[in-house]
Amino acid sequence: MQEEYAAQGIQIVAVSANARELAERAVEEWGITRIPVGYGLSKEQAREWGLFVSAAVKDTEPEWFTGPGLFVVRPDRTLYWSIVQTMPFSRPPGSALLNTLKFVIENDFPARGEVAP
């Protein structure tokens, strides 16, 4: 759906805590061709973004990994919306997210959580 997002002026970027080799293998195996994929996110950086960090429970998993996070960042580099999960299941469908972002853009919907303590 990258082209549909791009038509709305939305750039998708993926970031992984995986090492370069694992990230590159995922890009190849999953056929990711038009989305930049970063790698090497540290535990400290993951925690700065509010991501949950977990230890491996299977031999096939990395020693540690992060739960998924989805962040919508405005062109002025301020955080607009975030979804942080403790489990890797039930991520929002791309089409539902795109429809919501279209509504946000069309209606200039304000960010929430802006009230200072």
Ends: how far apart?
Answer: 39 Å
Net shape: globular
This entry's quaternary arrangement is single chain
- Structure annotation, total helices: 4
H/E element sequence? HEHEHEEEEH
Please supply descriptive tags for the structure shown above.
two-stranded antiparallel sheet; 4 helices; 117 residues; 31% helix; 6 strands; 18% strand; alpha+beta; globular; two-stranded parallel ribbon
Overview of the structural elements:
The chain has four helices and six strands, in the order H-E-H-E-H-E-E-E-E-H. 31% of the residues lie in helices and 18% in strands. Strand 3 and strand 4 form a beta hairpin. The model has no long low-confidence stretch (mean pLDDT 93). A two-stranded parallel sheet has the order 1-2. Strands 3-4 form a two-stranded antiparallel ribbon. Strands 5-6 form a two-stranded antiparallel ribbon. The longest helix has 13 residues, at 94-106. With 117 residues, the chain is of the alpha+beta class.
What are the SSEs and their pairings?
Blueprint: H1 2-7, E1 14-15, H2 20-30, E2 37-38, H3 43-48, E3 53-55, E4 64-66, E5 69-73, E6 79-84, H4 94-106
Parallel strand pairs: 1-2
Antiparallel strand pairs: 3-4, 5-6
Summarize the structure.
With 117 residues, the protein is α+β, with helices and mostly antiparallel strands.
